[in-house]
Design brief:
Layout: H1 15-22, H2 26-37, H3 41-48, H4 52-59, H5 68-77, H6 82-87, H7 101-107, E1 109-113, H8 116-129, E2 132-136, H9 141-145, H10 152-156, E3 163-170, H11 175-183, H12 188-203, E4 211-218, E5 224-229, E6 232-237, E7 249-253, H13 259-274, E8 276-277
Parallel strand pairs: 2-3, 3-4
Antiparallel strand pairs: 1-7, 2-5, 4-8, 5-6, 6-7
Protein backbone atom coordinates (compact mmCIF):
# COMPACT_ATOMS: atom_id res chain seq x y z
CA UNK A 1 0.00 0.00 0.00
CA UNK A 2 1.43 3.40 -1.04
CA UNK A 3 1.05 6.37 1.31
CA UNK A 4 1.92 9.58 -0.61
CA UNK A 5 3.73 12.47 1.06
CA UNK A 6 3.17 16.22 0.94
CA UNK A 7 6.39 18.02 0.02
CA UNK A 8 6.87 21.82 -0.10
CA UNK A 9 5.84 23.14 -3.50
CA UNK A 10 8.94 25.35 -3.64
CA UNK A 11 11.10 22.21 -3.67
CA UNK A 12 10.09 21.47 -7.26
CA UNK A 13 11.27 24.92 -8.37
CA UNK A 14 14.82 24.52 -7.05
CA UNK A 15 17.44 24.43 -9.79
CA UNK A 16 19.09 21.29 -8.40
CA UNK A 17 15.72 19.49 -8.26
CA UNK A 18 14.84 20.53 -11.82
CA UNK A 19 18.23 19.30 -13.01
CA UNK A 20 17.77 15.99 -11.19
CA UNK A 21 14.34 15.48 -12.71
CA UNK A 22 15.50 16.31 -16.23
CA UNK A 23 18.35 13.81 -15.87
CA UNK A 24 16.07 11.23 -14.23
CA UNK A 25 18.56 11.15 -11.37
CA UNK A 26 16.20 9.60 -8.85
CA UNK A 27 18.96 9.29 -6.23
CA UNK A 28 19.31 13.08 -6.28
CA UNK A 29 15.51 13.51 -6.21
CA UNK A 30 15.29 11.27 -3.15
CA UNK A 31 18.15 13.07 -1.39
CA UNK A 32 16.55 16.46 -2.00
CA UNK A 33 13.20 15.14 -0.76
CA UNK A 34 14.97 13.97 2.38
CA UNK A 35 16.85 17.23 2.82
CA UNK A 36 14.01 19.68 2.23
CA UNK A 37 11.02 17.53 3.12
CA UNK A 38 12.41 15.87 6.22
CA UNK A 39 11.69 12.38 4.86
CA UNK A 40 13.55 9.28 5.92
CA UNK A 41 14.57 6.59 3.45
CA UNK A 42 11.89 4.40 4.95
CA UNK A 43 9.18 7.03 4.44
CA UNK A 44 10.22 7.58 0.84
CA UNK A 45 10.05 3.84 0.25
CA UNK A 46 6.54 3.66 1.71
CA UNK A 47 5.39 6.66 -0.36
CA UNK A 48 6.71 5.25 -3.63
CA UNK A 49 6.11 1.55 -3.09
CA UNK A 50 9.80 0.71 -3.33
CA UNK A 51 11.15 -1.74 -0.78
CA UNK A 52 13.58 -0.53 1.89
CA UNK A 53 16.50 -2.42 0.39
CA UNK A 54 15.96 -1.05 -3.09
CA UNK A 55 15.38 2.46 -1.76
CA UNK A 56 18.76 2.25 -0.05
CA UNK A 57 20.35 1.07 -3.30
CA UNK A 58 18.81 4.05 -5.15
CA UNK A 59 20.12 6.47 -2.51
CA UNK A 60 23.60 4.99 -2.82
CA UNK A 61 23.60 5.11 -6.62
CA UNK A 62 23.65 1.33 -6.94
CA UNK A 63 20.27 1.10 -8.67
CA UNK A 64 18.89 3.30 -11.47
CA UNK A 65 15.18 3.70 -12.10
CA UNK A 66 14.31 3.42 -15.80
CA UNK A 67 10.84 1.83 -15.74
CA UNK A 68 8.08 4.30 -16.63
CA UNK A 69 5.73 2.43 -14.32
CA UNK A 70 8.10 2.94 -11.37
CA UNK A 71 8.73 6.56 -12.31
CA UNK A 72 4.97 7.14 -12.33
CA UNK A 73 4.75 5.55 -8.90
CA UNK A 74 7.53 7.79 -7.60
CA UNK A 75 5.87 10.90 -9.07
CA UNK A 76 2.55 9.97 -7.48
CA UNK A 77 4.09 9.04 -4.15
CA UNK A 78 6.07 12.27 -3.85
CA UNK A 79 3.09 14.34 -4.98
CA UNK A 80 4.92 15.86 -7.94
CA UNK A 81 3.09 18.75 -9.61
CA UNK A 82 2.73 18.54 -13.37
CA UNK A 83 5.71 20.81 -14.04
CA UNK A 84 7.91 18.31 -12.20
CA UNK A 85 6.30 15.31 -13.90
CA UNK A 86 6.99 16.83 -17.30
CA UNK A 87 10.65 17.41 -16.48
CA UNK A 88 10.80 13.73 -15.56
CA UNK A 89 9.32 12.90 -18.96
CA UNK A 90 5.88 11.86 -17.66
CA UNK A 91 2.43 12.96 -18.74
CA UNK A 92 0.68 15.49 -16.51
CA UNK A 93 -1.67 14.12 -13.88
CA UNK A 94 -5.28 14.23 -15.11
CA UNK A 95 -7.43 16.47 -12.98
CA UNK A 96 -4.74 18.85 -11.73
CA UNK A 97 -5.67 22.49 -12.46
CA UNK A 98 -3.92 23.81 -15.55
CA UNK A 99 -1.52 26.67 -14.91
CA UNK A 100 -0.47 27.64 -18.42
CA UNK A 101 -1.66 27.55 -22.01
CA UNK A 102 1.38 25.48 -22.97
CA UNK A 103 0.54 22.86 -20.38
CA UNK A 104 -3.09 22.74 -21.54
CA UNK A 105 -1.89 22.22 -25.10
CA UNK A 106 0.33 19.35 -23.98
CA UNK A 107 -2.21 17.45 -21.92
CA UNK A 108 -5.18 18.01 -24.21
CA UNK A 109 -7.70 17.76 -21.38
CA UNK A 110 -8.12 21.38 -20.34
CA UNK A 111 -10.83 20.82 -17.73
CA UNK A 112 -12.64 17.96 -16.03
CA UNK A 113 -16.28 18.32 -14.97
CA UNK A 114 -17.88 15.95 -12.49
CA UNK A 115 -20.95 15.45 -14.71
CA UNK A 116 -23.03 17.19 -17.37
CA UNK A 117 -24.76 19.32 -14.75
CA UNK A 118 -21.52 21.13 -13.90
CA UNK A 119 -20.57 21.62 -17.56
CA UNK A 120 -24.04 22.57 -18.81
CA UNK A 121 -23.75 26.34 -18.56
CA UNK A 122 -20.41 26.45 -20.35
CA UNK A 123 -21.67 24.21 -23.15
CA UNK A 124 -24.88 26.21 -23.58
CA UNK A 125 -23.00 29.52 -23.63
CA UNK A 126 -20.65 28.19 -26.31
CA UNK A 127 -23.55 26.81 -28.38
CA UNK A 128 -25.22 30.22 -28.60
CA UNK A 129 -22.20 31.50 -30.55
CA UNK A 130 -21.26 28.31 -32.41
CA UNK A 131 -20.95 27.88 -36.15
CA UNK A 132 -20.77 24.07 -36.00
CA UNK A 133 -21.99 21.49 -33.50
CA UNK A 134 -21.56 17.70 -33.61
CA UNK A 135 -23.29 15.29 -31.26
CA UNK A 136 -22.61 11.61 -30.68
CA UNK A 137 -25.22 10.19 -28.34
CA UNK A 138 -27.63 7.32 -27.78
CA UNK A 139 -31.01 9.04 -27.55
CA UNK A 140 -29.98 12.69 -27.20
CA UNK A 141 -33.28 13.56 -25.54
CA UNK A 142 -31.46 15.59 -22.89
CA UNK A 143 -29.16 17.16 -25.46
CA UNK A 144 -31.48 18.29 -28.23
CA UNK A 145 -34.57 16.05 -28.38
CA UNK A 146 -36.76 17.82 -25.82
CA UNK A 147 -37.87 21.44 -25.58
CA UNK A 148 -35.92 22.00 -22.37
CA UNK A 149 -32.87 20.01 -23.45
CA UNK A 150 -29.36 21.40 -23.23
CA UNK A 151 -28.91 22.57 -26.82
CA UNK A 152 -32.34 22.86 -28.45
CA UNK A 153 -32.85 26.53 -27.62
CA UNK A 154 -29.31 27.74 -28.48
CA UNK A 155 -29.31 25.87 -31.79
CA UNK A 156 -32.70 27.12 -32.94
CA UNK A 157 -32.29 30.75 -31.88
CA UNK A 158 -32.11 33.53 -34.44
CA UNK A 159 -28.59 34.24 -35.68
CA UNK A 160 -26.87 35.88 -38.62
CA UNK A 161 -25.82 32.58 -40.23
CA UNK A 162 -27.38 29.12 -39.69
CA UNK A 163 -25.49 26.84 -37.34
CA UNK A 164 -24.49 23.54 -38.91
CA UNK A 165 -25.36 20.61 -36.62
CA UNK A 166 -24.78 16.89 -37.08
CA UNK A 167 -26.38 14.38 -34.74
CA UNK A 168 -25.44 10.71 -34.50
CA UNK A 169 -27.96 8.51 -32.68
CA UNK A 170 -27.93 4.79 -31.95
CA UNK A 171 -29.96 2.80 -34.47
CA UNK A 172 -33.02 1.59 -32.52
CA UNK A 173 -33.25 -1.54 -34.68
CA UNK A 174 -29.63 -2.58 -34.15
CA UNK A 175 -28.46 -5.38 -31.84
CA UNK A 176 -26.41 -2.72 -30.05
CA UNK A 177 -29.61 -0.97 -28.96
CA UNK A 178 -30.96 -4.15 -27.40
CA UNK A 179 -27.62 -4.71 -25.70
CA UNK A 180 -27.54 -1.19 -24.30
CA UNK A 181 -31.11 -1.45 -23.01
CA UNK A 182 -30.15 -4.61 -21.14
CA UNK A 183 -27.02 -2.91 -19.72
CA UNK A 184 -28.95 -0.11 -18.06
CA UNK A 185 -31.90 -2.24 -16.99
CA UNK A 186 -34.55 -0.87 -19.38
CA UNK A 187 -36.89 -2.85 -21.54
CA UNK A 188 -35.89 -2.86 -25.18
CA UNK A 189 -39.27 -1.41 -26.09
CA UNK A 190 -38.93 1.54 -23.73
CA UNK A 191 -35.31 2.17 -24.62
CA UNK A 192 -35.81 2.20 -28.40
CA UNK A 193 -39.00 4.27 -28.04
CA UNK A 194 -36.80 7.01 -26.58
CA UNK A 195 -34.55 6.96 -29.65
CA UNK A 196 -37.54 7.07 -32.00
CA UNK A 197 -39.04 9.93 -30.04
CA UNK A 198 -35.79 11.87 -30.40
CA UNK A 199 -35.76 11.22 -34.16
CA UNK A 200 -39.32 12.51 -34.43
CA UNK A 201 -38.48 15.64 -32.44
CA UNK A 202 -35.40 16.26 -34.58
CA UNK A 203 -37.50 16.05 -37.75
CA UNK A 204 -39.51 18.97 -36.34
CA UNK A 205 -36.38 21.11 -36.62
CA UNK A 206 -35.79 20.61 -40.33
CA UNK A 207 -37.67 23.78 -41.24
CA UNK A 208 -35.83 25.95 -38.72
CA UNK A 209 -34.28 28.83 -40.71
CA UNK A 210 -31.30 29.22 -38.39
CA UNK A 211 -30.34 25.54 -38.15
CA UNK A 212 -28.78 23.34 -40.83
CA UNK A 213 -29.46 19.93 -39.29
CA UNK A 214 -28.26 16.47 -40.35
CA UNK A 215 -29.09 13.26 -38.47
CA UNK A 216 -27.71 9.76 -38.93
CA UNK A 217 -27.85 6.40 -37.14
CA UNK A 218 -24.88 4.28 -36.07
CA UNK A 219 -25.12 0.63 -35.09
CA UNK A 220 -22.18 -0.07 -32.78
CA UNK A 221 -22.26 -0.39 -29.01
CA UNK A 222 -22.08 3.14 -27.56
CA UNK A 223 -18.94 3.91 -25.61
CA UNK A 224 -18.28 7.62 -26.00
CA UNK A 225 -20.70 10.52 -25.77
CA UNK A 226 -19.37 13.54 -27.61
CA UNK A 227 -20.44 17.16 -27.91
CA UNK A 228 -18.29 19.24 -30.26
CA UNK A 229 -18.93 22.99 -30.24
CA UNK A 230 -16.76 24.51 -32.96
CA UNK A 231 -13.23 23.38 -31.97
CA UNK A 232 -13.99 22.31 -28.39
CA UNK A 233 -15.01 18.73 -27.55
CA UNK A 234 -16.87 17.74 -24.39
CA UNK A 235 -16.32 14.03 -23.95
CA UNK A 236 -18.03 11.59 -21.59
CA UNK A 237 -18.65 7.86 -21.69
CA UNK A 238 -21.28 5.18 -21.41
CA UNK A 239 -20.64 2.14 -19.27
CA UNK A 240 -22.71 -0.72 -17.99
CA UNK A 241 -24.09 1.21 -15.05
CA UNK A 242 -24.40 4.85 -16.06
CA UNK A 243 -25.65 7.09 -18.84
CA UNK A 244 -23.42 9.61 -20.58
CA UNK A 245 -24.75 12.65 -18.71
CA UNK A 246 -23.80 11.00 -15.40
CA UNK A 247 -20.18 10.45 -16.42
CA UNK A 248 -17.35 12.89 -15.84
CA UNK A 249 -16.94 15.22 -18.83
CA UNK A 250 -13.52 16.01 -20.26
CA UNK A 251 -13.07 19.23 -22.19
CA UNK A 252 -10.67 18.75 -25.11
CA UNK A 253 -9.37 21.84 -26.87
CA UNK A 254 -7.84 21.81 -30.32
CA UNK A 255 -4.10 22.29 -29.96
CA UNK A 256 -0.90 21.33 -31.71
CA UNK A 257 -0.13 18.31 -29.54
CA UNK A 258 -3.66 17.28 -28.61
CA UNK A 259 -3.85 13.70 -29.82
CA UNK A 260 -7.12 13.13 -27.96
CA UNK A 261 -8.90 15.94 -29.80
CA UNK A 262 -7.48 14.80 -33.13
CA UNK A 263 -8.35 11.15 -32.48
CA UNK A 264 -11.95 11.73 -31.41
CA UNK A 265 -12.51 14.14 -34.31
CA UNK A 266 -11.27 11.46 -36.69
CA UNK A 267 -13.43 8.83 -35.03
CA UNK A 268 -16.53 10.98 -35.35
CA UNK A 269 -15.89 11.65 -39.03
CA UNK A 270 -15.43 7.95 -39.72
CA UNK A 271 -18.60 7.07 -37.82
CA UNK A 272 -20.54 9.73 -39.70
CA UNK A 273 -19.31 8.40 -43.03
CA UNK A 274 -20.55 4.88 -42.28
CA UNK A 275 -23.81 5.83 -40.50
CA UNK A 276 -27.27 5.61 -42.06
CA UNK A 277 -28.40 9.10 -43.00
CA UNK A 278 -31.92 10.08 -41.90
CA UNK A 279 -32.03 13.84 -42.26
Amino acid sequence: MFVPVDLPDALWNRDNMRQALAARDIAAVFRLARQYGGLSQSRIGIATGIGQGRTNEVFNGKRKIVSIEVLERIADGLGMPDRARQLLGLAPAIGEPQDSEAQAARIGITRVFAAQATAAQEIRDAAWQANEVDLLAVRALGLIGLNDSLLREPLTAERAEPVKARVLLLDPDSPAAAHRAHEIGESEESFTAGIRMSIARLRELTDQPHLDLSVALYNTLPTWRLIRVDQTIYLSMFNGATEGHQSAIYRLSAAQYNLLHTGFTRQYEDLWTTAERLI
